[in-house]
Amino acid sequence: MASSPLNDIVSFSPDNRTVRVLLVDDDEATVELSTRFLERELTDVSVTGLTDPVMVTGHVREREYDCIVSDYDMPDLNGLDLLAALREDGCPVPFVLFTGKGNEEIASQAISAGVDEYLQKDGPDVYPVLANKIETLVEKHWAESQVRQGLLAIESAQEGIGIIDADGTFRYVNPAYADVYERTREEILGGHWSMLYADDERARFETEILPELESKGAWRGRATGVTKSGRSVPERLALTQLADGGHVCVVEDLTAEEDLLDDLAIRDRALDAASLGVVITDPSGDDNSIVYVNRGFTEMTGYSREETVGRNCRFLQGPETDPASVRELREAVEAEESVTTEILNYTKDGKPFWNLLEISPVTNDAGETVNFVGFQRQITKRKEHTIAIEEQLEWLHDFGQVLSHDLKTPLTVLKGNIELAREGDETRLDDARRAADRLDALITDLSNVMQQGDLVTDIEPLDLAAAFRSWDAFETEPASFTVVDSKRIRADERAAVRLADNLVKNTVEHADPDTAMRVGALPGGFYYEDDGPGIPTHERDSVFKPGYSTKPGGTGFGMVSIKQIALAHGWNVSVGESASGGARFEFTGVESPDE
Predict the structure, then answer these.
(1) Same structural domain for residues 106 and 164?
(2) Tens-digit pLDDT profile for residues 409-427
(3) How many structural domains compose the chain?
(4) Sequence-distant (≥ 6) Cβ neighbours of residue 244 within 8 angstroms
(5) Which range, 8-17, 141-150, 307-316, 389-398, is most confident?
(6) I want to staple 102 with a disulfide (CB 3.0 to 4.6 A). Which of 28, 80, 120, 384 is the partner?
(7) Higher per-residue confidence, 491 vs 15
(8) Same domain, yes or no, for 405 and 359?
Protein backbone atom coordinates (compact mmCIF):
# COMPACT_ATOMS: atom_id res chain seq x y z
CA MET A 1 0.00 0.00 0.00
CA ALA A 2 1.43 3.36 -0.99
CA SER A 3 1.88 5.98 1.73
CA SER A 4 1.94 9.77 1.66
CA PRO A 5 3.67 12.45 3.72
CA LEU A 6 0.35 14.35 3.76
CA ASN A 7 -1.48 11.72 5.81
CA ASP A 8 -1.43 14.07 8.80
CA ILE A 9 -3.65 16.45 6.85
CA VAL A 10 -6.02 14.14 5.01
CA SER A 11 -6.22 10.46 5.92
CA PHE A 12 -7.72 7.69 3.85
CA SER A 13 -9.79 6.27 6.69
CA PRO A 14 -13.39 5.11 6.02
CA ASP A 15 -14.59 8.42 7.47
CA ASN A 16 -13.04 10.37 4.60
CA ARG A 17 -13.87 10.71 0.95
CA THR A 18 -13.32 7.98 -1.59
CA VAL A 19 -10.59 8.78 -4.12
CA ARG A 20 -12.28 9.11 -7.52
CA VAL A 21 -9.94 8.33 -10.41
CA LEU A 22 -10.66 8.67 -14.14
CA LEU A 23 -8.53 6.40 -16.39
CA VAL A 24 -8.26 7.43 -20.06
CA ASP A 25 -6.69 4.90 -22.45
CA ASP A 26 -7.77 3.83 -25.93
CA ASP A 27 -6.89 0.22 -25.06
CA GLU A 28 -9.77 -1.34 -23.12
CA ALA A 29 -7.60 -4.17 -21.75
CA THR A 30 -5.16 -1.64 -20.30
CA VAL A 31 -8.02 0.23 -18.62
CA GLU A 32 -9.28 -3.00 -17.06
CA LEU A 33 -5.79 -4.05 -15.90
CA SER A 34 -4.98 -0.60 -14.45
CA THR A 35 -8.31 -0.51 -12.64
CA ARG A 36 -7.67 -3.85 -10.93
CA PHE A 37 -4.17 -2.87 -9.81
CA LEU A 38 -5.27 0.53 -8.46
CA GLU A 39 -8.17 -1.01 -6.54
CA ARG A 40 -5.64 -3.39 -4.98
CA GLU A 41 -3.11 -0.68 -4.12
CA LEU A 42 -5.47 1.98 -2.77
CA THR A 43 -7.71 1.37 0.23
CA ASP A 44 -10.75 3.43 -0.77
CA VAL A 45 -10.85 4.19 -4.49
CA SER A 46 -13.42 4.40 -7.27
CA VAL A 47 -12.01 4.01 -10.78
CA THR A 48 -13.87 4.96 -13.97
CA GLY A 49 -12.43 4.09 -17.38
CA LEU A 50 -12.91 5.84 -20.75
CA THR A 51 -11.42 4.68 -24.04
CA ASP A 52 -12.40 7.74 -26.12
CA PRO A 53 -10.40 10.84 -25.10
CA VAL A 54 -12.75 13.12 -27.04
CA MET A 55 -15.52 12.31 -24.53
CA VAL A 56 -13.48 13.17 -21.44
CA THR A 57 -14.10 16.93 -21.22
CA GLY A 58 -17.87 16.59 -21.36
CA HIS A 59 -17.75 13.63 -18.98
CA VAL A 60 -15.75 15.58 -16.38
CA ARG A 61 -18.25 18.45 -16.49
CA GLU A 62 -20.96 16.07 -15.28
CA ARG A 63 -18.96 14.14 -12.67
CA GLU A 64 -16.41 14.98 -9.99
CA TYR A 65 -12.98 13.35 -9.97
CA ASP A 66 -9.96 13.73 -7.72
CA CYS A 67 -7.33 12.64 -10.28
CA ILE A 68 -7.15 11.94 -14.04
CA VAL A 69 -4.69 9.35 -15.37
CA SER A 70 -4.26 9.43 -19.15
CA ASP A 71 -2.28 7.63 -21.84
CA TYR A 72 -0.28 9.76 -24.27
CA ASP A 73 -0.55 8.10 -27.69
CA MET A 74 -4.31 7.95 -28.51
CA PRO A 75 -6.26 8.53 -31.73
CA ASP A 76 -7.93 11.93 -32.32
CA LEU A 77 -6.51 13.47 -29.13
CA ASN A 78 -3.22 12.72 -27.37
CA GLY A 79 -2.71 12.99 -23.62
CA LEU A 80 -1.17 16.47 -23.66
CA ASP A 81 -3.91 17.83 -25.93
CA LEU A 82 -6.44 16.34 -23.52
CA LEU A 83 -4.74 18.11 -20.59
CA ALA A 84 -4.86 21.42 -22.47
CA ALA A 85 -8.58 20.95 -23.18
CA LEU A 86 -9.33 20.14 -19.55
CA ARG A 87 -7.41 23.12 -18.20
CA GLU A 88 -9.08 25.42 -20.72
CA ASP A 89 -12.43 24.08 -19.51
CA GLY A 90 -11.54 24.98 -15.90
CA CYS A 91 -10.80 21.48 -14.57
CA PRO A 92 -8.23 21.85 -11.75
CA VAL A 93 -7.79 18.21 -10.64
CA PRO A 94 -4.32 16.58 -10.77
CA PHE A 95 -3.34 15.06 -14.14
CA VAL A 96 -0.95 12.09 -14.51
CA LEU A 97 0.49 11.20 -17.92
CA PHE A 98 0.79 7.40 -17.83
CA THR A 99 2.27 6.35 -21.16
CA GLY A 100 3.90 3.39 -22.78
CA LYS A 101 5.47 5.62 -25.39
CA GLY A 102 8.03 7.39 -23.30
CA ASN A 103 11.11 9.35 -24.28
CA GLU A 104 12.89 12.50 -23.22
CA GLU A 105 11.05 14.62 -25.80
CA ILE A 106 7.62 13.55 -24.53
CA ALA A 107 8.73 13.97 -20.93
CA SER A 108 9.94 17.50 -21.71
CA GLN A 109 6.65 18.33 -23.44
CA ALA A 110 4.69 16.93 -20.49
CA ILE A 111 6.58 19.08 -17.99
CA SER A 112 6.12 22.15 -20.15
CA ALA A 113 2.41 21.40 -20.53
CA GLY A 114 2.00 21.33 -16.74
CA VAL A 115 1.26 17.66 -16.01
CA ASP A 116 1.39 16.91 -12.29
CA GLU A 117 3.20 13.59 -12.77
CA TYR A 118 4.80 11.71 -15.69
CA LEU A 119 5.12 7.91 -15.55
CA GLN A 120 5.95 5.22 -18.11
CA LYS A 121 4.18 1.87 -18.29
CA ASP A 122 6.90 -0.63 -17.39
CA GLY A 123 4.82 -3.59 -16.34
CA PRO A 124 2.97 -4.51 -13.09
CA ASP A 125 5.74 -3.12 -10.88
CA VAL A 126 4.83 0.41 -11.94
CA TYR A 127 1.33 0.31 -10.38
CA PRO A 128 2.42 0.76 -6.73
CA VAL A 129 4.36 3.81 -7.91
CA LEU A 130 1.31 5.08 -9.78
CA ALA A 131 -0.90 4.52 -6.74
CA ASN A 132 1.56 6.43 -4.55
CA LYS A 133 1.64 9.36 -6.98
CA ILE A 134 -2.18 9.43 -7.20
CA GLU A 135 -2.55 9.36 -3.42
CA THR A 136 0.00 12.12 -2.91
CA LEU A 137 -1.52 14.35 -5.59
CA VAL A 138 -5.06 13.86 -4.32
CA GLU A 139 -4.15 14.58 -0.71
CA LYS A 140 -2.31 17.74 -1.77
CA HIS A 141 -5.32 18.78 -3.87
CA TRP A 142 -7.70 18.19 -0.94
CA ALA A 143 -5.46 20.05 1.50
CA GLU A 144 -5.27 23.06 -0.84
CA SER A 145 -9.05 23.02 -1.15
CA GLN A 146 -9.40 23.04 2.64
CA VAL A 147 -7.04 25.99 2.90
CA ARG A 148 -9.06 27.92 0.32
CA GLN A 149 -12.29 27.20 2.18
CA GLY A 150 -10.71 28.15 5.49
CA LEU A 151 -9.63 31.56 4.23
CA LEU A 152 -12.93 32.32 2.48
CA ALA A 153 -14.72 33.62 5.58
CA ILE A 154 -11.86 35.93 6.60
CA GLU A 155 -11.28 37.04 3.02
CA SER A 156 -14.91 38.18 2.73
CA ALA A 157 -15.12 39.79 6.19
CA GLN A 158 -15.88 43.50 6.34
CA GLU A 159 -13.49 43.91 9.26
CA GLY A 160 -9.78 44.19 8.49
CA ILE A 161 -7.98 41.09 9.79
CA GLY A 162 -4.21 40.63 9.78
CA ILE A 163 -1.69 38.17 11.21
CA ILE A 164 1.71 39.50 12.26
CA ASP A 165 4.61 37.23 13.23
CA ALA A 166 6.94 37.55 16.22
CA ASP A 167 9.29 39.80 14.21
CA GLY A 168 6.48 42.25 13.48
CA THR A 169 6.20 41.19 9.83
CA PHE A 170 2.81 40.88 8.13
CA ARG A 171 2.16 37.28 7.13
CA TYR A 172 -1.50 37.70 6.19
CA VAL A 173 -4.00 40.52 5.63
CA ASN A 174 -7.47 40.28 4.11
CA PRO A 175 -8.63 42.80 1.45
CA ALA A 176 -10.51 44.89 4.04
CA TYR A 177 -7.28 45.34 6.05
CA ALA A 178 -5.36 46.64 3.03
CA ASP A 179 -8.25 48.94 2.10
CA VAL A 180 -8.02 50.73 5.46
CA TYR A 181 -4.56 51.97 4.49
CA GLU A 182 -5.37 52.46 0.77
CA ARG A 183 -2.82 49.83 -0.19
CA THR A 184 -2.79 46.50 -1.95
CA ARG A 185 -2.09 43.34 -0.01
CA GLU A 186 1.16 42.88 -1.91
CA GLU A 187 2.36 46.25 -0.61
CA ILE A 188 1.75 45.17 2.99
CA LEU A 189 2.71 41.48 3.08
CA GLY A 190 6.30 40.95 4.12
CA GLY A 191 6.54 44.47 5.51
CA HIS A 192 6.85 45.52 9.14
CA TRP A 193 3.77 46.80 11.00
CA SER A 194 5.52 50.09 11.65
CA MET A 195 5.15 51.05 7.97
CA LEU A 196 1.49 51.87 8.67
CA TYR A 197 2.11 54.35 11.51
CA ALA A 198 3.81 57.72 12.07
CA ASP A 199 6.78 58.12 14.40
CA ASP A 200 4.82 59.21 17.48
CA GLU A 201 2.32 56.36 17.11
CA ARG A 202 5.10 53.82 16.58
CA ALA A 203 6.62 55.00 19.86
CA ARG A 204 3.29 54.53 21.60
CA PHE A 205 3.06 50.97 20.28
CA GLU A 206 6.57 50.19 21.52
CA THR A 207 6.14 51.68 24.99
CA GLU A 208 2.47 51.08 25.80
CA ILE A 209 0.46 48.86 23.49
CA LEU A 210 2.84 45.96 22.72
CA PRO A 211 4.03 45.53 26.33
CA GLU A 212 0.40 45.33 27.49
CA LEU A 213 -0.36 42.89 24.68
CA GLU A 214 2.54 40.67 25.77
CA SER A 215 1.64 40.79 29.46
CA LYS A 216 -2.14 40.42 29.18
CA GLY A 217 -2.46 38.50 25.91
CA ALA A 218 -4.78 41.06 24.33
CA TRP A 219 -5.19 44.79 23.75
CA ARG A 220 -8.13 46.80 22.48
CA GLY A 221 -8.31 50.50 21.82
CA ARG A 222 -7.83 53.30 19.32
CA ALA A 223 -4.83 54.21 17.24
CA THR A 224 -3.99 56.35 14.21
CA GLY A 225 -2.60 54.80 11.07
CA VAL A 226 -1.28 56.36 7.85
CA THR A 227 -2.46 55.62 4.32
CA LYS A 228 -0.16 55.31 1.32
CA SER A 229 -0.94 58.92 0.42
CA GLY A 230 -0.09 60.14 3.92
CA ARG A 231 -3.63 60.65 5.22
CA SER A 232 -4.19 59.86 8.90
CA VAL A 233 -6.62 57.02 9.60
CA PRO A 234 -8.36 56.95 12.99
CA GLU A 235 -8.86 53.28 13.73
CA ARG A 236 -10.22 50.84 16.30
CA LEU A 237 -7.77 48.00 16.96
CA ALA A 238 -8.13 44.64 18.66
CA LEU A 239 -4.85 42.75 19.14
CA THR A 240 -4.56 39.18 20.40
CA GLN A 241 -1.30 37.46 21.28
CA LEU A 242 -0.55 34.15 19.54
CA ALA A 243 1.39 31.25 20.98
CA ASP A 244 4.27 31.71 18.52
CA GLY A 245 4.88 35.30 19.63
CA GLY A 246 2.94 36.93 16.82
CA HIS A 247 -0.51 38.41 17.10
CA VAL A 248 -3.83 38.78 15.31
CA CYS A 249 -4.92 42.31 14.50
CA VAL A 250 -8.53 43.30 13.78
CA VAL A 251 -8.83 46.86 12.49
CA GLU A 252 -11.78 49.11 11.76
CA ASP A 253 -11.52 52.43 9.95
CA LEU A 254 -13.16 55.18 12.06
CA THR A 255 -12.68 57.97 9.52
CA ALA A 256 -16.39 58.36 8.91
CA GLU A 257 -17.02 58.58 12.66
CA GLU A 258 -14.35 61.21 13.12
CA ASP A 259 -15.85 63.23 10.27
CA LEU A 260 -19.31 62.96 11.82
CA LEU A 261 -18.75 63.48 15.54
CA ASP A 262 -22.42 64.10 16.18
CA ASP A 263 -23.19 60.62 14.85
CA LEU A 264 -20.48 58.80 16.82
CA ALA A 265 -22.75 57.56 19.61
CA ILE A 266 -25.42 56.47 17.10
CA ARG A 267 -22.90 54.48 15.10
CA ASP A 268 -21.51 52.79 18.22
CA ARG A 269 -25.01 51.75 19.23
CA ALA A 270 -25.71 50.53 15.72
CA LEU A 271 -22.53 48.41 15.71
CA ASP A 272 -23.42 46.98 19.10
CA ALA A 273 -26.99 46.25 17.97
CA ALA A 274 -25.63 44.27 15.03
CA SER A 275 -24.73 41.54 17.59
CA LEU A 276 -21.69 40.50 15.58
CA GLY A 277 -19.30 38.61 17.81
CA VAL A 278 -15.78 37.59 16.81
CA VAL A 279 -13.97 34.70 18.51
CA ILE A 280 -10.49 33.34 17.79
CA THR A 281 -9.35 30.01 19.21
CA ASP A 282 -5.99 28.26 19.37
CA PRO A 283 -6.17 24.55 18.43
CA SER A 284 -2.59 23.98 19.59
CA GLY A 285 -3.54 24.79 23.19
CA ASP A 286 -5.68 22.88 25.62
CA ASP A 287 -9.11 22.00 24.19
CA ASN A 288 -8.98 24.55 21.32
CA SER A 289 -9.37 27.33 23.89
CA ILE A 290 -10.43 30.90 23.14
CA VAL A 291 -7.61 33.46 22.82
CA TYR A 292 -9.71 36.46 21.78
CA VAL A 293 -13.31 37.72 21.85
CA ASN A 294 -14.55 41.11 20.73
CA ARG A 295 -16.97 43.43 22.49
CA GLY A 296 -19.84 42.18 20.33
CA PHE A 297 -19.31 38.73 21.83
CA THR A 298 -19.20 39.94 25.43
CA GLU A 299 -22.36 41.98 24.99
CA MET A 300 -24.16 39.17 23.20
CA THR A 301 -23.33 36.57 25.86
CA GLY A 302 -22.92 38.61 29.04
CA TYR A 303 -19.49 37.07 29.68
CA SER A 304 -16.50 39.39 30.04
CA ARG A 305 -13.25 38.81 28.18
CA GLU A 306 -11.61 37.59 31.40
CA GLU A 307 -14.41 35.04 31.89
CA THR A 308 -14.09 33.81 28.31
CA VAL A 309 -10.43 33.62 27.29
CA GLY A 310 -8.95 30.19 27.99
CA ARG A 311 -12.25 28.31 27.74
CA ASN A 312 -13.72 26.19 24.94
CA CYS A 313 -16.72 27.68 23.13
CA ARG A 314 -18.93 24.83 24.30
CA PHE A 315 -19.49 26.65 27.62
CA LEU A 316 -22.23 28.61 25.78
CA GLN A 317 -24.22 25.41 25.21
CA GLY A 318 -27.11 24.38 27.44
CA PRO A 319 -29.85 21.82 28.07
CA GLU A 320 -31.83 22.54 24.87
CA THR A 321 -28.83 22.82 22.53
CA ASP A 322 -29.30 20.39 19.64
CA PRO A 323 -26.67 17.60 19.84
CA ALA A 324 -26.71 17.39 16.03
CA SER A 325 -25.53 21.03 15.76
CA VAL A 326 -22.81 20.36 18.34
CA ARG A 327 -21.68 17.28 16.44
CA GLU A 328 -21.61 19.23 13.16
CA LEU A 329 -19.34 21.86 14.72
CA ARG A 330 -17.05 19.29 16.35
CA GLU A 331 -16.64 17.28 13.16
CA ALA A 332 -15.87 20.42 11.13
CA VAL A 333 -13.22 21.54 13.62
CA GLU A 334 -11.68 18.07 13.75
CA ALA A 335 -11.56 18.03 9.94
CA GLU A 336 -10.26 21.64 9.88
CA GLU A 337 -13.11 22.69 7.61
CA SER A 338 -15.37 25.74 7.45
CA VAL A 339 -18.89 25.37 8.82
CA THR A 340 -21.99 27.55 9.18
CA THR A 341 -24.86 26.51 11.43
CA GLU A 342 -27.62 27.80 13.68
CA ILE A 343 -27.21 26.75 17.31
CA LEU A 344 -29.06 27.48 20.54
CA ASN A 345 -26.65 29.07 23.05
CA TYR A 346 -27.11 30.52 26.53
CA THR A 347 -26.06 33.85 28.03
CA LYS A 348 -24.31 34.19 31.39
CA ASP A 349 -27.67 34.57 33.16
CA GLY A 350 -29.04 31.40 31.51
CA LYS A 351 -31.16 33.06 28.84
CA PRO A 352 -31.25 31.05 25.58
CA PHE A 353 -30.55 32.78 22.25
CA TRP A 354 -30.22 31.58 18.66
CA ASN A 355 -26.74 32.07 17.23
CA LEU A 356 -25.81 32.04 13.54
CA LEU A 357 -22.26 30.72 13.85
CA GLU A 358 -19.62 30.71 11.10
CA ILE A 359 -16.31 29.01 11.87
CA SER A 360 -13.28 28.81 9.57
CA PRO A 361 -9.69 27.64 10.05
CA VAL A 362 -6.77 30.09 9.68
CA THR A 363 -3.60 28.56 8.20
CA ASN A 364 0.04 29.55 7.94
CA ASP A 365 2.26 29.44 4.87
CA ALA A 366 2.76 25.70 5.33
CA GLY A 367 -0.98 25.07 5.18
CA GLU A 368 -1.16 24.20 8.87
CA THR A 369 -4.17 25.35 10.87
CA VAL A 370 -2.96 27.74 13.56
CA ASN A 371 -6.29 29.27 14.61
CA PHE A 372 -10.03 29.10 14.15
CA VAL A 373 -12.05 32.28 13.72
CA GLY A 374 -15.74 32.37 14.53
CA PHE A 375 -18.31 35.01 13.58
CA GLN A 376 -21.48 35.04 15.68
CA ARG A 377 -24.76 36.77 14.94
CA GLN A 378 -27.76 36.91 17.27
CA ILE A 379 -30.76 35.68 15.21
CA THR A 380 -33.27 34.89 17.97
CA LYS A 381 -36.02 37.15 16.59
CA ARG A 382 -35.60 35.78 13.07
CA LYS A 383 -35.61 32.20 14.36
CA GLU A 384 -38.70 32.81 16.51
CA HIS A 385 -40.44 34.42 13.53
CA THR A 386 -39.62 31.38 11.38
CA ILE A 387 -40.93 29.03 14.07
CA ALA A 388 -44.09 31.13 14.42
CA ILE A 389 -44.72 30.97 10.67
CA GLU A 390 -44.22 27.19 10.69
CA GLU A 391 -46.64 26.83 13.60
CA GLN A 392 -49.19 29.07 11.84
CA LEU A 393 -48.93 26.99 8.67
CA GLU A 394 -49.41 23.81 10.70
CA TRP A 395 -52.41 25.37 12.46
CA LEU A 396 -53.97 26.42 9.13
CA HIS A 397 -53.41 22.91 7.76
CA ASP A 398 -55.13 21.30 10.75
CA PHE A 399 -57.90 23.90 10.76
CA GLY A 400 -58.59 23.30 7.06
CA GLN A 401 -58.97 19.58 7.68
CA VAL A 402 -61.19 20.17 10.69
CA LEU A 403 -63.39 22.62 8.83
CA SER A 404 -63.64 20.23 5.90
CA HIS A 405 -64.80 17.56 8.35
CA ASP A 406 -67.40 19.88 9.90
CA LEU A 407 -68.73 20.96 6.49
CA LYS A 408 -69.33 17.44 5.25
CA THR A 409 -72.25 16.63 7.58
CA PRO A 410 -74.58 19.55 6.63
CA LEU A 411 -73.47 19.19 3.02
CA THR A 412 -74.48 15.50 3.06
CA VAL A 413 -77.84 16.40 4.65
CA LEU A 414 -78.38 19.13 2.05
CA LYS A 415 -77.66 16.82 -0.86
CA GLY A 416 -79.81 14.01 0.58
CA ASN A 417 -82.85 16.26 1.16
CA ILE A 418 -82.55 17.83 -2.28
CA GLU A 419 -82.52 14.36 -3.80
CA LEU A 420 -85.63 13.36 -1.82
CA ALA A 421 -87.34 16.61 -2.83
CA ARG A 422 -86.63 15.88 -6.49
CA GLU A 423 -88.36 12.55 -6.00
CA GLY A 424 -91.50 14.36 -4.84
CA ASP A 425 -91.17 14.85 -1.09
CA GLU A 426 -91.19 18.64 -1.04
CA THR A 427 -91.28 18.70 2.79
CA ARG A 428 -87.59 17.86 2.57
CA LEU A 429 -86.87 21.36 1.24
CA ASP A 430 -87.23 22.78 4.76
CA ASP A 431 -84.60 20.33 6.00
CA ALA A 432 -82.41 21.24 3.04
CA ARG A 433 -82.80 24.93 3.86
CA ARG A 434 -81.72 24.38 7.49
CA ALA A 435 -78.67 22.43 6.30
CA ALA A 436 -77.84 25.25 3.89
CA ASP A 437 -78.11 27.74 6.78
CA ARG A 438 -75.68 25.59 8.73
CA LEU A 439 -73.26 25.62 5.79
CA ASP A 440 -73.58 29.39 5.58
CA ALA A 441 -72.73 29.73 9.28
CA LEU A 442 -69.69 27.47 8.92
CA ILE A 443 -68.47 29.43 5.90
CA THR A 444 -68.85 32.63 7.92
CA ASP A 445 -66.72 31.00 10.62
CA LEU A 446 -64.06 30.23 8.01
CA SER A 447 -64.08 33.85 6.82
CA ASN A 448 -63.67 35.11 10.37
CA VAL A 449 -60.79 32.72 11.05
CA MET A 450 -58.99 33.60 7.83
CA GLN A 451 -59.36 37.34 8.48
CA GLN A 452 -58.75 37.37 12.23
CA GLY A 453 -56.80 34.13 12.77
CA ASP A 454 -59.17 32.96 15.51
CA LEU A 455 -61.95 30.39 15.78
CA VAL A 456 -63.73 32.60 18.29
CA THR A 457 -64.77 36.16 17.43
CA ASP A 458 -68.08 37.14 19.12
CA ILE A 459 -68.10 36.24 22.82
CA GLU A 460 -71.54 36.75 24.37
CA PRO A 461 -73.83 35.18 27.01
CA LEU A 462 -75.20 31.85 25.78
CA ASP A 463 -77.49 29.22 27.29
CA LEU A 464 -75.58 25.93 27.49
CA ALA A 465 -78.60 23.78 26.68
CA ALA A 466 -79.40 25.90 23.61
CA ALA A 467 -76.00 25.07 22.10
CA PHE A 468 -76.82 21.34 22.27
CA ARG A 469 -80.23 21.65 20.54
CA SER A 470 -78.97 21.54 16.96
CA TRP A 471 -80.21 18.16 15.80
CA ASP A 472 -80.99 19.38 12.31
CA ALA A 473 -77.35 18.66 11.47
CA PHE A 474 -77.96 14.90 11.69
CA GLU A 475 -80.09 12.56 9.64
CA THR A 476 -80.67 10.46 12.77
CA GLU A 477 -81.92 12.37 15.80
CA PRO A 478 -80.60 11.13 19.16
CA ALA A 479 -83.05 8.80 20.81
CA SER A 480 -82.32 9.97 24.36
CA PHE A 481 -80.86 13.33 25.27
CA THR A 482 -81.12 14.91 28.69
CA VAL A 483 -80.14 18.33 29.92
CA VAL A 484 -79.38 17.49 33.53
CA ASP A 485 -78.95 21.14 34.33
CA SER A 486 -77.99 24.14 32.24
CA LYS A 487 -76.21 27.41 32.87
CA ARG A 488 -75.32 30.58 31.07
CA ILE A 489 -71.79 30.73 29.72
CA ARG A 490 -69.75 33.24 27.76
CA ALA A 491 -68.99 31.78 24.33
CA ASP A 492 -69.09 32.32 20.57
CA GLU A 493 -72.49 30.89 19.64
CA ARG A 494 -71.56 29.40 16.26
CA ALA A 495 -68.34 27.88 17.62
CA ALA A 496 -70.20 26.44 20.65
CA VAL A 497 -72.86 24.90 18.36
CA ARG A 498 -70.08 23.28 16.28
CA LEU A 499 -68.55 21.87 19.45
CA ALA A 500 -71.94 20.45 20.53
CA ASP A 501 -72.57 19.02 17.04
CA ASN A 502 -69.24 17.19 17.08
CA LEU A 503 -69.85 15.76 20.57
CA VAL A 504 -73.34 14.48 19.64
CA LYS A 505 -72.15 13.24 16.24
CA ASN A 506 -69.33 11.31 17.91
CA THR A 507 -71.87 9.46 20.06
CA VAL A 508 -74.31 8.86 17.17
CA GLU A 509 -71.54 7.45 14.94
CA HIS A 510 -69.80 5.27 17.53
CA ALA A 511 -72.70 3.95 19.66
CA ASP A 512 -76.14 2.38 19.25
CA PRO A 513 -79.01 4.61 18.05
CA ASP A 514 -80.69 4.44 21.49
CA THR A 515 -77.58 5.52 23.40
CA ALA A 516 -78.42 8.07 26.08
CA MET A 517 -76.62 11.42 26.16
CA ARG A 518 -76.47 14.02 28.93
CA VAL A 519 -75.17 17.53 29.37
CA GLY A 520 -74.87 19.33 32.69
CA ALA A 521 -73.18 22.11 34.61
CA LEU A 522 -69.94 21.91 36.56
CA PRO A 523 -68.32 24.47 38.84
CA GLY A 524 -66.48 26.68 36.36
CA GLY A 525 -67.65 24.69 33.34
CA PHE A 526 -69.86 21.90 32.00
CA TYR A 527 -69.77 18.25 30.96
CA TYR A 528 -71.10 16.04 28.18
CA GLU A 529 -71.40 12.25 28.54
CA ASP A 530 -73.06 9.23 26.99
CA ASP A 531 -73.78 5.57 27.72
CA GLY A 532 -71.84 4.28 24.70
CA PRO A 533 -68.79 2.02 24.60
CA GLY A 534 -66.52 4.77 25.98
CA ILE A 535 -62.88 5.50 25.19
CA PRO A 536 -60.21 3.11 26.51
CA THR A 537 -57.91 4.61 29.14
CA HIS A 538 -54.76 4.06 27.09
CA GLU A 539 -56.24 5.96 24.13
CA ARG A 540 -57.45 9.07 25.96
CA ASP A 541 -54.16 10.92 25.48
CA SER A 542 -54.48 10.43 21.71
CA VAL A 543 -58.17 11.18 21.26
CA PHE A 544 -57.62 14.83 20.24
CA LYS A 545 -54.80 14.12 17.78
CA PRO A 546 -55.59 14.45 14.04
CA GLY A 547 -56.49 11.10 12.52
CA TYR A 548 -57.61 9.40 15.76
CA SER A 549 -60.84 7.44 15.23
CA THR A 550 -62.29 4.14 16.40
CA LYS A 551 -64.68 4.05 13.46
CA PRO A 552 -63.43 2.36 10.25
CA GLY A 553 -62.90 5.09 7.65
CA GLY A 554 -63.28 7.84 10.27
CA THR A 555 -61.10 10.96 9.94
CA GLY A 556 -60.77 11.73 13.63
CA PHE A 557 -61.08 15.46 12.96
CA GLY A 558 -64.30 15.76 14.95
CA MET A 559 -62.28 15.41 18.14
CA VAL A 560 -59.67 17.86 16.80
CA SER A 561 -62.44 20.40 16.17
CA ILE A 562 -63.67 20.00 19.77
CA LYS A 563 -60.15 20.62 21.10
CA GLN A 564 -59.55 23.64 18.85
CA ILE A 565 -62.83 25.33 19.79
CA ALA A 566 -62.25 24.73 23.51
CA LEU A 567 -58.72 26.14 23.37
CA ALA A 568 -59.90 29.14 21.32
CA HIS A 569 -62.27 30.00 24.20
CA GLY A 570 -59.51 29.47 26.77
CA TRP A 571 -61.16 26.34 28.14
CA ASN A 572 -59.54 23.12 29.28
CA VAL A 573 -61.00 19.84 28.04
CA SER A 574 -60.43 16.36 29.45
CA VAL A 575 -61.71 12.89 28.60
CA GLY A 576 -62.93 10.42 31.20
CA GLU A 577 -65.58 7.78 31.82
CA SER A 578 -69.26 8.27 32.63
CA ALA A 579 -70.95 6.37 35.48
CA SER A 580 -72.35 3.91 32.91
CA GLY A 581 -68.97 3.29 31.29
CA GLY A 582 -69.44 5.63 28.35
CA ALA A 583 -67.42 8.67 27.29
CA ARG A 584 -67.39 11.81 29.44
CA PHE A 585 -65.96 15.16 28.33
CA GLU A 586 -65.41 17.86 30.93
CA PHE A 587 -64.85 21.52 29.98
CA THR A 588 -63.42 23.79 32.69
CA GLY A 589 -62.15 27.34 32.85
CA VAL A 590 -65.47 28.46 31.30
CA GLU A 591 -66.56 32.01 32.11
CA SER A 592 -70.17 32.66 33.17
CA PRO A 593 -71.87 36.08 33.02
CA ASP A 594 -73.81 35.15 36.18
CA GLU A 595 -70.79 34.43 38.37
Answers:
(1) no
(2) 677 778 888 888 888 887 7
(3) 3
(4) 165, 166, 370
(5) 307-316
(6) 120
(7) 491
(8) no
